[in-house]
Amino acid sequence: MKIPVLDLKPQYESIRADIQVAINRVLESGAFIMGPDVKLFEQEVAQYLGVKHAIGVNSGTDALVIGLKALGIGEGDEVITTPFSFFATAESIGNVGAKPVFADINPKSFNINPEEIKAKITPRTKAIMPVHLYGCPAAMGQIMDIAQEYGLKVIEDCAQSFGARFYEKSSDINSKFTGTIGDVGAFSFFPSKNLGAYGDGGLIATNNDQVAELAKALRVHGAKKKYHNEMLGYNSRLDTLQAAILRVKLPHIDAWNDGRRKVAEIYNELLVDVPGIITPKLADGHVFHQYTIRVTDGKREQVQQYLASQDISTMIYYPIPQDQLPVYQGKYPVNPVSDKLAQEVLSLPIWVELHQSTVEQVVKIIKQALSR
Ligand SMILES: *Cc1c(COP(=O)(O)O)cnc(C)c1O
């Protein structure tokens, strides 16, 4: 039996009736663009996250771009971010005319290392864009301290971290959701994300009224009042159909995130003493969008190929760090930790309904691959 890296079908089957009611409601209403479900979803997300404003947009990428624009970031500005992410992170910074500057990562969390941020600050630095990669909250306590000290904005890339919370007992942001700590949180509802639509979708979260007002205008061609366009904006609305689907899913998100964590715990228990494998930390608040191990000693390809030969799919997120992608033509200095991890990471099958016996099977094959 083939084991994919993600199977969305069992989740759909568990909510099929509710999804079909929601879709039919939109079809019957005919309100496909900015229908009532969009506003209701925004209100429900704002309430869930405990944030003042939630603004639906067309994708996670657009949430980053519009979030940056609404924060006033553009030409001549620098934004410090992680090299170890999907390219939408750095691309969004470039697409508003600013320059991404990369600070190396912490090998335990796979996230931007606050110690590396300060050295990258210049008079042009305007913001920090941490990514909560794989669903693991970045070191927001230290990041917010640096931002405050240097007067920088913080825009969180939460594409992989819906429902993740940051825990640091001594901190005043203890237990806050990712995306509600910085000035802007940018979420993606790409189907494979923890809260996934059945198409593209994204959302901006902010407690800042002015940023919210600008973001709302930017998503509809820069118009606060229809046909009174005040600035160049975008066509970037969250579809009513997707909002209706997401409203069915939102009440399940905590249970689903808990389910992913349970799968991660099982993997960790089974892999803990396997030589050549470094398991991810079960950090508090981590929602395991991906379960990603490190395969050391140059054995990753061997392990991945052997798993594939046994019909087990895995993924490499990401084979090339953003700063080393062809688009930048080698003009960024290397980040040793990020470059090393790009050679070692391997994301294993994970979804809520994944059976313990399948996890055991995957681990068995990994052990076989390493002993060959
Ligand atoms: C998925 C993803 C995005 C982009 O989200 P889209 O909705 O696909 O535009 C941005 N950043 C990260 C880290 C992602 O994983």
Outline the fold blueprint:
Layout: H1 9-29, H2 36-49, E1 53-57, H3 60-70, E2 78-81, H4 88-95, E3 99-102, H5 114-117, E4 125-129, H6 140-150, E5 153-157, E6 165-166, E7 176-177, E8 184-188, E9 202-206, H7 209-218, H8 240-249, H9 253-271, E10 277-278, E11 291-295, H10 300-309, H11 336-344, E12 345-348, H12 356-370
Parallel strand pairs: 2-3, 2-4, 4-5, 5-8
Antiparallel strand pairs: 1-9, 6-7, 8-9, 10-11, 11-12
Helix pairs in contact: 1-8, 2-8, 3-4, 3-7, 9-12, 10-12
The protein binds pyridoxal-5'-phosphate.
The dominant shape is globular
The radius of gyration is 21 Å
Which molecules are bound in this entry?
Answer: pyridoxal-5'-phosphate
> Which regions are unreliable across 5 or more consecutive residues at pLDDT < 50?
none
**CATH structural fold name of the largest domain:** Aspartate Aminotransferase, domain 2
Order of helices and strands: HHEHEHEHEHEEEEEHHHEEHHEH
The largest pleated sheet is described as: 7 strands, mixed
Counted up, domains total 2
Give the rounded overall mean pLDDT.
98
Strand content: 5-15%
Derived structural class = alpha/beta
Portion of residues within helices: 25-40%
Number of helices: 12
Q: Explain this structure to me?
A:
- The two termini are about 20 Å apart.
- The chain is of the alpha/beta class and about 375 residues long.
- Helix 1 (about 10-30) packs across helix 8 (about 240-250), helix 3 (about 60-70) runs parallel beside helix 4 (about 90-95) and helix 10 crosses helix 12 (about 355-370).
- About 45% of the residues are buried.
- The protein has a seven-stranded mixed sheet, sandwiched between helices. A three-stranded antiparallel sheet has the order 10-11-12.
- The model has no long low-confidence stretch (mean pLDDT about 100).
- Strand 4, helix 6 and strand 5 (about 155) form a beta-alpha-beta unit.
- It is built from twelve helices and twelve strands.
- It folds into two domains: about 10-250, Aspartate Aminotransferase, domain 2 (3-Layer(aba) Sandwich), CATH 3.40.640.10; about 255-370, Alpha-Beta Complex (Aspartate Aminotransferase, domain 1).
- The radius of gyration is 21 Å and the shape is globular.
- The protein binds pyridoxal-5'-phosphate.
